Amino acid sequence: MRRSPAFLTGALVGGLLTAPLIALLYLADRLGDFPFVPYTLFDWLGRVLPGDVITRVIEGMVSAIRALNLGETSGTAKTIENGMGILALLAIGIAAGAVLFAVLHALDRRLTEHARSVPGLITGALVGLPLILITRHMLYSPGAAFTAAAPEVLALAWLAVAFLVWGAALGRVYNRLYPAPDHASIGPTLPEASVTRLDRRRFLIRLGGATAAITVAGAGVGRLIAYLEAQDLQATIEARRRAAEAMPTGLPNSGDPVEPAPGTRPEYTPLEDHYRIDINSRPVEIDGNAWRLQIHGLVDHPQALALDDLIARYEAHDQYVTLACISNPIAGDLISTTRWTGVRLHDVLADAGVQPGAAYLRVRSADGFHETVDLALVDEEPRLLLTYQWDGIPLLPQHGYPLRLYIPDRYGMKQPKWITEIEVTAEYEEGYWVVRGWDAVAQMRATSVIDVVAADSAYPDPATGQMLVPIGGIAHAGARGISKVEVRVDDGPWAEARLRAPLSETTWVIWRYDWPFAPGEHTFTVRCAEGDGTPQITERRPTAPSGATGLHSVSRSL
Ligand SMILES: Nc1nc2c(c(=O)[nH]1)N[C@H]1C(S)=C(S)[C@@H](COP(=O)(O)O)O[C@H]1N2
Ligand SMILES: [Mo]
Fold first, then answer.
1. Whose CA is nearest to atom 20 of ligand 1?
2. 523 and 453, same structural domain?
C-alpha cells in the first residue's frame, strides 16, 4: 500500500490545527476584544481587491440568498461574509501545512531532529506576520477609529504567540509522523520502523479528536458570550429609548383612510429590522466621548465638534426617510424606513466659513469609507442632515454612531456612517464605491413592489357582492415622490391603485388595490410613476452600476 503524499497529509494536518487556532482567536476576541484575524483579513481583502471582483461577489451572494430563501438579505450576507473570512484563514492554514510537509519531506534525509523544529516556527512566522500587519493596519493605524479592541501591544503579542505555537505544532506533528531516520533513537519519537501506516492513522485520528474538542469548546464558549452580548443589544435599544425619553411618536399619516392590505410590510421599519450594509465584518464601535467631527480644508474656522456641540449649537430637524442600498434587487429587502434626526449640514458649514474656490466636501469615515458631496447641493438642499438619531435614539453602532450623513434621493452608498472628518476642497474625488465602478451620482431609481396578494382577506364588495382581494405593497422614487401606482392582472388593463399618504416626501408610499377575484392561476404586475409623472423604467437592468430597474411580478394560484 502506498502512503499518501506528504503534502496531502500536511494539508490535512494544517486544517486540523488551524480550526482550533481560529476557535481560540475567536474566544480571545469575545473574552477580551482581541482582534479576530479572519474578520480583519476579510475586511482588508474587501478593500484591496478590484471593485469588479467585489461587485460580482456581492451580486452572487444577494442572488443566492434570494434564490435559496435564506432569510433577510443584509443579515444573512453578513453571516456569509463572516464565514468567508473564517474559510479564508482555514485555507491559508491548509496551504501552509501542505507546503511545510512537502518541503520537509524533500529535505527529510538532510535534517536532524533538532533542525526539524525550526521550519515549523518559520511557517508560523511567515503566515502570522502578514496577518498581524494586516490586523494592525485595519485596527490600529491612525485613521482607524475602531475603539473596541484590546491595547495594541498586547493584541499583537497575543497573535504572534498564537501563530508561533500553531507553527511549532505543525512541525511537531510532522516529526511525529515522519521521524528523522538517523536520530530517531535520540529524540522522544518512535523509531521509523515502528511508525507503521496504522500508527500514523491512529495518531491522526487522535489529533483530529483533540483539535475538534478544542475547536468546539472554544467556538462554543465564544458563541455563548456573543449570544449573551446580542441580548444586550436589545437591552441597549431599550435603555437608549428610556434615556432619550423617546416616546413612541404617532406617525404623521395615522389618520389616512387607505389601510394597507393585510400582510403589507410595516410602513415604519422596526429599528432592529432596518437593513445594514457596510464594508465591516463587525460594526465600527466609536467612543462617543472622545469622538470629534473635524471640519477643515478651505474654511476660515476649522472645527473639532463634539456630539454635544452639534446638538447644543444647531437646530434639530426630523426627516422620515426610506433608505435603500444600490445593491437592492427588484423587490429586495435592502430598503427600510425610519425617522432621522440631525442638524443641517448647511448650518454647520456656515459657521466654519467656506472659502471661495471650494467646490466639494470630502466626507471620511472611521472605517476608511469616504464620499464626495457637491457644495452646490449643500446650498440648494436644506435636507442634508448630519444625523445623530434614528427613531428618536442615538444611532446604533451598526448604523453609524455617533454621526452619519443623510442625502435625499441618493442610494445608501453616497451616505457615510461613522463620519469623522469633512474636508472642504476644490477638487473632486471619487467616493469609495464610485472608485469600484458604481454610479457617481447614485440617484435612487423609481421602484414598486407587490408585498402581498391577500387572498385570505378577501371580502365582498358591499355594492355588488363581488369578492375583492386586497393587493398591496410599496412604491418609492427617492425624494421625487410617487403620483401613481397601477396593477395589471395577467394581460389585462392597468388598474390604478389607491395611495396612502406617505410618512414624508422622502419615504416609500404604501399602495393598495382591491382586485375583483377570479379563480385560477394569475400573474400580478405593478408599476409606478414618479411625482412629476415620469414612468418607472420597465427595462430589466441589474443592480450594478446604477441600481436595478424593471417591473415586479408575482404569480399565484387562487
Ligand atoms: N462608513 C461607512 N458608511 C457607509 C457604508 C460603509 O460601508 N461604511 N455603506 C454605505 C451603504 S452601501 C449603505 S447601503 C448604507 C446602509 O446604511 P445602514 O447599514 O445604516 O442601513 O450605509 C452607507 N454608509
Ligand atoms: Mo449599499
1. 399
2. yes
